[in-house]
Amino acid sequence: MARVALASRASYSGLVCAAKPFPVPVLRLKSGQRNVRSFSSMWDRRFTKTHEWIQIVHSESDAAFIARVGISQFAQDQLGEIQVVEFPKVDTSFKPGDEMVSIESIKTISSCNAVSECHVVEVNKALEEDPSLINSSPEGDGWIVEVKFTGGLDEYTMDRAVYEAGCEDGSIPP
């Protein structure tokens, strides 16, 4: 049974928002984990305009969390067969837009970029032996790195529906 919360009546720039019920998901967190405010649900996969996905796997606080990062199915389809993945060293730090990982396919060389300040805490060692895992499971076993973020990601990411619509209508270029 879904819980329902009541939105309060508020005024923004002269507009009045009436109180309306909206569903609130009930999260089952593992012991020691906390909900992260920057995501509607800490387990939701978020996407970037450069075709990376980010999914929180552990929360240390509301402002610091560890997330897996990979490339979307759309990006994998554009790249074709992945042949080589060049990883950063663990504990390497990145600023927004920095290339974290180089991905070589039969078509081109691409990258997986940092969406926000972060540092690498783990790489997917399975990809060192079998980079084609990205082809068979880009949003699953083909994850690329785990990084620690220390800030919200909402301004840099979008949910799957918005991402897929942008890929379809061309507002997010390939």
Can you describe what's shown?
The protein has 174 residues and is of the alpha+beta class. The chain is built from four helices and 13 strands. The strands form four sheets. Strands 5-6-7-13-12-9 form a six-stranded antiparallel beta sheet. The longest helix is centred in the C-terminal third of the chain and has 10 residues. It starts with a strand and ends in a 5-residue tail after the last helix. The N terminus is likely disordered.
What's a concise summary of this model?
It contains 4 helices and 13 strands.
Write the layout of secondary structure elements.
Elements: E1 3-6, E2 10-12, E3 15-17, E4 21-24, E5 46-47, E6 52-59, E7 65-71, H1 73-79, E8 82-86, E9 93-94, E10 99-105, E11 109-113, E12 118-123, H2 126-129, H3 133-136, E13 145-149, H4 160-169
DSSP helix fraction: 10-25%
Residue share in β-strands:
35-45%
Radius of gyration: 18 Å
Quaternary state of the chains:
single chain
Structural class: alpha+beta
Poorly predicted tracts of residues: 1-40
Spatial strand order of the main sheet: 5-6-7-13-12-9
Overall 3D form: globular
Biggest beta sheet summary: 6 strands, antiparallel
Give the H and E element order: EEEEEEEHEEEEEHHEH
Q: Would you report the number of β strands? A: 13
Mean of the pLDDT scores? 78
How many separate helices?
4
Terminal Cα span: 40 Å
Jot down its keywords:
six-stranded antiparallel β-sheet; three-stranded antiparallel β-sheet; 35% strand; disordered N terminus; single chain; 4 helices; globular; alpha+beta; 174 residues
